[in-house]
Amino acid sequence: MEKDLVEYIAKSLVDDPSAVQVNVIEGEKSTILELRVAPEDIGKVIGKQGRIAKAIRTILQAATVTTGKRTVLEILD
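^ RNA-binding protein KhpA, sequence as received from the core. Prediction below:
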């Protein structure tokens, strides 16, 4: 579910939705989501002063609060 949410948000923000990739790494207490986008779209996903990235992380935390696991979003370039 988390993967689909991040993928949907990222594809809505970027110019090249086909380049969006989300990799899930499951741990015992946390889940890491690695987000990759086209190099020219990285700024659109991060936003000015990281505001968009922070907003995506906030939405992700709200969506996963019932699971009890910590979810981390990493934006890779």
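The longest strand covers residues 30-36.
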